[in-house]
């Protein structure tokens, strides 16, 4: 069975925030499942309510290693989640009213709620350790005595699943009542408290999440929610409006995360605004001057997409339109980035493929920065992050590339019939993905893009390549809208087939850095299948495994080539 | 007579396709009723809104205030007016059977629907019956009948529209009446209601009243809230309340008591083939009872359209004369509406009246008006600060109304967006094109629903550095004038220090040059390093932001600033650096931030001649964060700059602000102080120099107010004092860095609560660091953090001193004892605002704010040598009429008039400021 690593998913989050029809809690062995009207809502919102990576689903999947993101529900979600479109749906959605009400009414703190999340994971650990789940949570302290080889061996032996924890959002560190007047002043001390705990260990923390936390601004976040989701929750807090990069509090949190003597946490740049990310890269360097230990801690993002722009191009050539004004007394500014067509499909109506150029996704320079730091990028399986927009017709966007003339025979063969020259033709069948598989193509375009950027910008010594820095970061059970065909963790086993099929095509058709191929080719122009399989291995599991070994070795330099 | 069903079907045929729009307007009306959108925003015809406002005979703001209030509050005279109008309404009988309603529009002319009287033949055997109504005892009144006389006047417009016939389809008939009733009663007993064909008698969302004879019954008036909400080109659509027989009734706009329409028919809901629907959704037939039809509303013919038809129709000479009578009102009102709109402070319900002054002071009004600096907007864009609930709906309402009055150029944004809390009353910056008196306009803004307080954001002179006291004797010892010249340079003045303080314990028998840092010994900062619990504030993450003129490259402070966080809040400059370019020149005196900052982070050793003193936190390698909020110590252009700085300090999570600049009490600074307090920021503020009264923001409960002492442990005479003061620290004869006249770096002894303030900021930083473990408990979150410090500061203060017993807080800062004083339990802390009547304070400030600012600016203008003129191009202008009245009532009995240009003016200005300030402070306590 395929082994998989997932850099970012949620295991018990939905169990915590939902109730069954009878008001009880779902058992660990049950999936959260919506029915009736709730199912309808689940469908129109792209499936955020049904389980995608429950313990049961995980136990049936190929997932062997990964990172479970823990988070407390933000006010912006709790605000109106039970009142979608003005109707009270509290009786329909299987959500635990208690959790949402105390968050909405400020009767609790995010830190309290977060500790409940930890406690829930820890109290269920014994049960989850048993078959069929066989899940074990990773903690550096218990692995410290093992050599990297021993760690690797242990992680890959048997049927066990090993998961680390991460903290999704700095808001989890706020110890003041949610969204009241009082500000949180000591998030770094709360983080220290967590780092000092012996019963739990975290690999990383996201400084920001999807919404503005007025009582504890740590840094700018990038707008992540759009369209239906925004409509559903209807909170202004999802729209970034204020702030300028990292705040002093944010720096305190980062400093605390990176400089803890025994259990440093990585900073996950996902959800930070692009300005804040750049600010962070700079601040990390400043910290490294004071404390060289910081240098060994890689930059990472657990579930990202790419803009397919260099920031330089984006800014210098103004690949966006912006407007400013005020809404309801709030000063606002909006930036509309240019669409960038990054691929195509065989769907006649829905032919174009576009990335998501929103700045929540990484720019090319950042891909390089992360690779330089020996970091890791989890590629999101959320279709919105990868670029899908309108579910019905997604290939029409405001700005198209210019038309070009094409020789008729070439056109017939390549564009009409989707055939490629050389061995790929027979190996991989049709060139363009079907409507159902368009999102797989999006994923492959992301991988190829990052690899090409890496190859172009950096030198790679033998046995290293940009492929070493990419992994899956599904964000399952994080209220996402998963890419087509990958509705839950069980479907991930299909990934290899899709990658085998579409990576070569993505490498063929991605218009950026076209001379710099991401894959290797034989003299006859055919894809080097061994290399292809190897990089897919890396993306699906080995990179994650290596990263986990490094984590368990507390980021001490380990031999780059872990024997697999 | 045309059958009712045909009328309704005709309406359905003509207007069925517009149903979606009617429905949309109906929804919007609901929103108005729910308070989601303001009434004036319902009306999409801005011309109509303007005319409607004009009809109020008030300023635009007054008019809006009244129109918005009409829904719930009507002047009683409306009843009288309606009662009068109602007498003109008559019941129309044909062969003794009631068939409709009409009303008298000229001495002997009535109007009704065409479908009631189609032609002169119809009028035969018809009677108009007046007073067909019940008296107060429910007994029918005597109701005389008058025969119709089509020969006298007859003009009709058909029910159906015919493109070939001008003004067809308006469904009206004018017809004459006999002058005497069937029993000889004179028609002259009944006054006509004259029609006004001009627009603006009602705007959408306003209510209307239909006076009618439903089903031919006794005269009825529907008193429920029936609103006009939609329209077509010729019809007004209003909510449904009529029954058959109402055809030809008058529809009266409640706000103006003018006839707005001739009621004509119900407006039924229809299907996509314009078939009339019942409430059950089935297709209605001519037999369907009225109450089963699904009515959308009612429609009436616009009076403006009827008048237009009347004007343009061809009539015989006799009838044309009568037509002139019918058109008279329209002409008169048209003239009135073309008059310019009233401005100023007029009150609803009255005409424009001059300010009422008492007989004894009226003659003074012109002469005694204080000059107000910057009271009018010269840029054409006026800036205001208002307080209002931070709710999207409220903001949208306010914005809509502002735009209706001041045009599309209005902007309204949160003054402190980063720290704003949804639903709370927050400070907003408002800008719009305006060229009048901004202080007066600020008072007008209060009439807009949702706005709680408003002030003009005018430049304010600042109480920071009294180095410009070249005009004469100051309240203090005036030593700053010894060290600083007009251009901000100064000279070393140690000999004077030694002469003055030879007996000071900080000088006498002290090691050589120790006296240059006497402020250390007076506060026990020299003992700090020996304390067991002292921690480096910087390493504990404690930071101090300095609100001042920014930093300079003076060697004394070089390297002491945190240039990762500095920020410039001035409008014009590069925001990313708080560098003070030291613009040298009269009134441009730079370096204030350098002098005050040196007391925190001044380097220990520099090659400067006369080197001495150093920053209280220098040994901790502490970095000060400079926020540049003003270009010079003289003036702050906009309070918004200060608000932005505070907002950033809050959102960054900083702990302490040190501010050695003061302002008069203003609405904005009061809000800021409260906000900083709620957010747990320790805002150390100079109590003030030369004005004696404690200045803003020190005067507010939320801040820490610092007064100044001297090397004799006595008060600096120039220090402000009062119950608002929390603590006293060295502020007179403090050794600070300056530039000398040759622009070389030097030192001098200077005075000011500006210098006392950093001592408290430094002490706060050390105390927060020392007790961080305790204070990080959530129980100390928010204001309790500030209050914990204030309490510790008070209980540890050194009481052995020669300060006056009152007005200097709890005594002298003693940092050694402070650090030994642990925070009291959080539960024992008391909110400083508990004893502060904020509502009363804001209410009083709203009234006295302009005077306070004016006297303040006048006094400081004098301090800064304004009389010699030209430094900041201060523009003189008169007080707003309101503040003039206030001034007259306050100072009516003062013997001499106040003139700003005379030297004596400074004292008067100060006295007046102190009086107003005292009124303000007392209002809250």
TrEMBL record, chain A:
Gene3D superfamilies: Metal-dependent hydrolases. It comes from the Bacteria. SUPFAM superfamilies: Metallo-dependent hydrolases. This is Membrane dipeptidase (Peptidase family M19). The lineage of its organism: Bacteria, Pseudomonadati, Bacteroidota, Cytophagia, Cytophagales.
TrEMBL record, chain B:
InterPro entries: Peptidase_S1_PA, Peptidase_S1_PA_chymotrypsin, Peptidase_S1B, Peptidase_S8/S53_dom, Peptidase_S8/S53_dom_sf, Peptidase_S8_Ser-AS, Peptidase_S8_subtilisin-like. GO terms for molecular function: serine-type endopeptidase activity. CDD domains: Peptidases_S8_S53 (cd00306). The keyword Protease applies. The active site is at residues 548, 592, 754. Its EC number is 3.4.21.-. The keyword Protease applies. It is an enzyme of class 3 (hydrolase). One of its GO terms (biological process) is proteolysis. It holds the Pfam family Peptidase_S8. Keywords: Hydrolase, Protease, Serine protease, Signal. Residues 547-811 form the Peptidase S8/S53 domain. PANTHER family: CEREVISIN-RELATED, PEPTIDASE S8. Belongs to the peptidase S8 family. This is Serine protease. It comes from Larkinella humicola.
